[in-house]
Amino acid sequence: MDTSPSEPPFRVAALYRFARLDGHEALRAPLAAFCCARGIKGTLLLASEGINGTVAGSAQAICELVAHLQALPGLDGLDVKYSHATDMPFHRMKVRLKREIVTMGVEGIDPAMSAGTYVEPSEWNALISDPDTVVIDTRNAYEVSLGSFRGALDPQTASFRQFPGWVDVHRANLEGRKVAMFCTGGIRCEKATAYVKALGIDEVFHLKGGILKYLEAVPQAESLWQGECFVFDERVSVSHGLEEGEAELCRACRRPLTPQDRHSPHHAAGVSCVYCHNERSDADRDRYAERHRQVELARKRGAAAHIGS
């Protein structure tokens, strides 16, 4: 009898590709129908500069979607990172049209033509261990709070739009040095490298496949990653081997919470946490408490608990 552990039922695909997508608007409806027909849920963003998103479904459904996307003009080099989830990590399927597939807000940046040099996960440790390398986490502060690479700079941004401003302020510290950047799946740091190169800084590198690929490919014993990696779905975080992490989401402010955060006296499931307790009124907390009660009732009934999502 086969006693090996079974694979979790849902395959998760984080994907992106910077490519010129002329007429991307026409892809929206057919792509949504393709996904919905196969029970796939998640979000895909389409823009003239390419595609970005994370989706989940059965292994067969995700395989069909990736093959479908790679057959579209310009998307044959689609970057895909796979992981698994015990429960469906998304509530619905959304295909959205955007000006940018990752919003930086700077005109004229073209990662398809001018991104930095890819660094494979197996070579990343050597690069960031070089004392002449400046290592930058291009994610937002709430993501960095769960984990990052040892010695990486945290720009303390609330959104990726703020990243160019941070670079401009710290430009003198980057010039004449190697600059290594990373993000969750590779898309933000790819665009960030194009911006930094546009400033005339030449030795710019980024982690191929992002943190997700590194956690999958690099053995924990050799890893320079500390903590967990925030992901934008109901799993909240993943750790080495892309195992589901211990973080949970505060349903009031959407910040990720570590087990230590959840021991705070200001933490109440679905209502408040150590970060937002003083940002909300009693009326807010009463409203959140009622929403949480309804979610729990729906869950007990076996219904889709997506109130307020």
Automatic annotation (TrEMBL):
Domain of life: Bacteria
E.C. number: 1.14.-.-
Family annotation (InterPro entries): Multihaem_cyt_sf, Rhodanese-like_dom, Rhodanese-like_dom_sf, TrhO, TRHO_N
Family: Belongs to the TrhO family.
Purpose of the protein: Catalyzes oxygen-dependent 5-hydroxyuridine (ho5U) modification at position 34 in tRNAs.
HAMAP family recorded: TrhO (MF_00469)
Full protein name: tRNA uridine(34) hydroxylase
Species: Ollibium composti
